[in-house]
Design brief:
single chain; 476 residues; alpha+beta; 8-stranded mixed β-sheet; 5-stranded antiparallel β-sheet; 15 helices; 19% strand; globular
Amino acid sequence: MLAGGKEKGEKGKGKGDKGKDKGKGKEKGKGKEKGKDNMTAAERLAFAQGALSADGPPAKKPRLDGEPGADDEEEELPEFDFEKDWKDKPVALLNLKGAKELNGLMATVKEYNEDTKRFLVTVEGGKGDKSIKMENLFKVMTGCIVKLRGLDSIELNDCIGECGRLDVENLRYDITLSDGRHVKAKPANVELVAKYESSKVAGDVVQMERIRAANGLRDRLFAVEEFDFPAPLVLPANALEDYAKKFPKSVVIGRSNAANPKGAQVLQREVVSATKIPPGSRLVFISMPRDRCVAPQLAEMRHDELLRLGKFGGWLVKRLAPRPVYFLLPGTIAKGPATALNSATCAWPLYVELCSDMVLLESDRWQKSSWARMDALMAVWAKTPMYVLPEKYSPAVALPDASPVPKTAEEDDAKASAASEPLSFAHEEPLTIGRPAEGLSNPSPLLLGLAERAAEAEAQGSGKVQKPTLAVKRLV
């Protein structure tokens, strides 16, 4: 892209002594560097997206005799879907001639006028709404999940982060990596991974109609991504069974109940996207006590709870064989920067809907956890059967003459057949819990949004009870 600067530097050589070339080159071969240094912030932005050479605005295309001029024929714009490609997207303004003071400012696209071929944008800083041509808009990746590439610091390449604001003056994005570090990167070194919805709770009527009309697990997962949410990450139940067998002791000095470090690393390698598992897999949501929605990570889990899940997972794999079984653990359901975790939190109603069952990891800590209580209420909303995994859990032993559970084809939709394959035939028992926001002085807005979504399952017109009672079955 910079190669053209040298050639044009030759042409600017004669005018360089008079200072009228504005950086097009006072000496042979210096045009490309000098021109770029003298660009305005808006011109550097255009240069970054390839709309401008290092020597200034591109020359106009020669017009043949009889060819209509700009006043005779409107410029043809490429076809686009405004709602998908432009609406509410952040942009930078550039190359404006009539309002140069707006060049380099950020704005949000609101509307598109088909007659005038202009976009209505709201400019930051209280500068109001402006009608702007497409050629003067540069879409930025602020708020998106991005991957770094082509950096001199090789160790940063392929790192995933959240893209912050674009510094138009220096032409650098502020990237926040998953570990909290900040990196400045040019637009050319930033690759879009995904744009997630991270503020609006999922599960509205339109989305649920789409999810419930889906043809199997893969179609449901496609719908989740279609709504701009990440597909959940899952853990094979037999991986937890292996943990319980191979790592029966914690071995962390001073923390007898901490997860075995080596075992946690082994488990982490088994985490996989739900889009990559067999379509007939049975998904089981594990509700755990925690202080955040997406937590705890495997290394932060309690050893006794991992052992309990390992025993349960081993029993369940045998019971449902040959159907694969995967667990959705709150702490492994998503990874990445804050935007990705917030988006996963918003998608909680969809994740619960994907599962055939919800298992509550019983403990005093579970009752005290706002997020765990929200899980249970969301299961009621999604009509997902709930089971309690007791602290002193011991897997049931199958008797030799016991009637086998009917087996279905491995590729069949597990959610459709779950009613005939319950995890327990025990009688339902009541479980009374507090509301998610109970005891919190400043609850998370997303927690309140999820609680409001879950409350849709309660009878219309009836008052909300302070402590709802749910129906669960005990796993023994």
